[in-house]
Protein 1
Amino acid sequence: MTTDRHELREVVASRGFRGLMAVRLSGQFADGLFQAALFSAVFFNPERATSAGEAAGAFATLLLPYSLVGPFAGVFLDRWRRQRVLVNANFVRAAIVVAFATLLALQGPTSPPVVGLALVAISANRFVLAGLSAGLPHVVPAPQLVTANSVSTTLGAAAAAIGGSAALGLRAVFGSGDVGAADTALVAAGIYVASALLSRRLGRDELGPTHAHVHERLLVAMGGVARGVLQGAQHVRERGPAARALAAITAHRFFYGLSFVGALLLYTDQGALHRGFAGLGQVVVVSVVGGVLAAIVTPRVTRRLGTQRWVAVVFAVAAVIEVAFGTPYTHWAFLVAAFFLGFVAQASKICVDTLIQETTEDDFRGRVFSFYDTLFNLSFVSAGLASAFLLPPNGKSYLVIAIVAVGYAVTSLAYAASTARRAGSEPPEPVMA
């Protein structure tokens, strides 16, 4: 416990880390507001009903475009000053959200311009998060990365959840229709501007990359994109811990996505639980609380077990939780399941982020984290598409529960076995301070 507090104090004492956290927290709070406004308009508008197929189509429309351009964005994170990228990206997404809100109020959430602006805004969000993760090792020493990732990713998720909760309050003020959702999105745009201004307080070279091509023209940089993507993929392949971690968390994201779409349908007005947007909000908040506990527990446990063993353990726990608390199909059982699955999601992400930061070189880190986000999105989209065939309109399916539970169990066993096989041929994991 004393070691944990000492390490946390050292991490928080870093001016660069505090600056990075200010950008992350403001940006993810705005993300929560914007995404809640979007979900409110698409899935919880009283004038519309949502089927599993429509939910899958919405997720595919929003996430697939970034999955295609994400690796290319990563090349620029490794070529241009990441601090400037954070400043400009936040200003750009503020402008995009203003345009989105205007058209949402006029045309509704299903019009092509509104859908197009939503997918661009979400793509920009993921781009910013990749830049924040790539820049973290520049402001925190390597032995403290587990703690730093625990704090940053957990508080970031909490900020997003608080933003979503704030959207619930704004929904009561602005209304549940498209105009109300548009007004909420405008509030998010203002906070993105604040995040951009906070980014300007960071040092120009503080976040890397170490060898920034600051005078390189856009067309010249674009010429190296395809080559850079291939180099980034090769860089991951050559680093066993990073490659295995990405494979494991990609599988997790698929099973988590199936559970998420199922929960979304369960809580719509036509769902089996009939709890609406407020009920889903409770599930999200409880999930974040589980993530906060993971942030407290994970640094301490990984000093004993190591990050790779801990990933295998939490995925095994997820398999048990899915059966024990998923099958009753009651609101209270789902709250318990959400708590533990939130713990699993956050614990595994902390470990995977740390493994990638420790085992990849800085000149490739932006590409690797963008590739990481791309795999995240593709896996979630795949889960959405699978849910269109597996889930009924009310979201209740024992088959999906079984698929998710077995999937987590197999992922845990496969990851543990592959890590054990390579244990003697790879350098030991760094010992956390």
Protein 2
Amino acid sequence: MRAVHVTQSGDPASSVAVAEVETPTPGPGEARVAVDAVALNRLDVFARLGHPAESDEFPKRTGVDIAGTVDAVGEGVDDTLLDTDVVVYPVVECGECEFCHAGEQTLCPTYEIIGEDRPGGLAEYVTVPAHTLEPVPDELSMETAAATPVAFTTAWRMIVTTGRLRPSESALILGASGGVGHAALQLADRTGARTYATTSTNEKAARLREHADAVIDYTAEPFDEAVRAETDGRGVDLVADHVGEETWQSSIDALAPGGRMVICGATSGADPDIDIRSLYQAHRQIRGAPMGNREDFRDALDLVARTDVGPRIDRVLPFERAAEGHAALENREVVGKVVLEP
């Protein structure tokens, strides 16, 4: 079968290639999915650029967001699953610890992510634990189903489960043209909150105004100062931040007294400087909100299926143009998601 491999650390053109590899056979408790569509995430870019905490063994097969059709099952898996269109919840947990029993799969101390800790979906076929599969709602295309899991499950965790955003409140979404950011902006808007979004170009800003009451070009002015100006000096009730080091203090400074920052990533680095007085003196809070649990995933998928909320697909490319997709994501040329198809 064909698979997209990250062959080395470096630029997309020299580091991303299609390879011929053996088609996997599902083991006990597993199902094999004939892949229809896979969405890219920052994780795919990090796998190529290298990560300080990882050994960086190559080749790597990424692809966390997967949609396709079950074409084989392993021992112990009900064969009625065959020929079912499915989307993958990409977390594999132990199922036995206190957190798993509480339904918090991403708190499991041994949890793994398909496409990061296990071979991902950037291949014609992928084997996954059968319990990670969810039927694709009839209302969704395979491309939309593939573009939903990581972005919308994470955004749901940030805005709904952890952020607890209310209609009477206001929210600032950083990097609102990216996959998670655009999902978070839509959820905040649907909540009824007043929404502010940051981006870097007029073209991106024009696309975000459908869901944002105000769009801030963070390359032209400090976004925390812009938000305070927009709110008559008050600040916002919630900031959704996936940038990390580069924006950390500014995100805190953009909060109203008693406001909360929800953070799901650290794409710019993980060691920010912080004035702790800006937290406790204003009763502000920082809440961790990475990839959501299975309930968050199902809630987000159901909302996308039933409403006009959903992933914006910037482009759909064949596997042979995977390097182009990597480059577009790395260079922040997209609004929404890049989807690859075999």
Protein 3
Amino acid sequence: MAKIIDGKAISAQIRAELREEVSKMNTKPGLAVILVGDDLASHTYVRNKKAACEEVGMYSEVHYLPGETTESELLELIEKLNRDEKIHGILVQLPLPAHINESAVIKSIDPGKDVDCFHPYNVGRLTIGEPVFLPCTPAGIMELLSRSGIEVAGKRCVVVGRSNIVGKPIAIMLLHANGTVTVCHSKTKDLAEECRRAEILVSAVGRAGFITADMVSTGAVVIDVGINRGPDGKLCGDVDFAAVEPKASYITPVPGGVGPMTITMLLKNTLVAAKQRV
């Protein structure tokens, strides 16, 4: 039976560390979140981010913009926040309405305030191993591994998914931690065989129950990044948890695994940004 990696407990531990560090600072780290439109899931995420800032003693402000906001209006607000000295981190909640160029918006954020680590400057620094910030979900995964005593160096790591938000950056971070990394995707031949080679398997494809027991080797560490709704309407991950858990050595549940770590790493990035501007 696998050991369950408790993301809630590890997240709480890190937030306590952040709260203590923030309490000793002369400058209160500040995070600005921008939400365009009425996406219900995005509203929930934004509320959680604001509450998390309050929990660790950070300043936060949320800018709610109507769905018909123009790209130029959004860029004007971002430029204002770029100049605002009390704001150390800027986050534009994705997805954006179709009429707004997501790439242009990301590039308009001051790289020193890009706490999502989406700006090409920060992605480049991550790639060469000199990061200013770490992308939040991948950073959360690395913390889960580290604080669970799981060594990455020398391990065969397989990442299923190649998104810019999770798949690519976690592959880079595992590589920097001296893992031997394979990235799998929709064009991979014999995906199951590739997955069975993994000592550390990370799934970030967004398909409920996609990783089945026959795709996992005995004793593998299984990290499930997926957040999906099953046929019963309940939250579930990419991994068939009930079938895979008896084979794995460690596994993250959904909910309660990787999910709680993402906002916590956002807070950590905001703290890093504030320290850089002191």
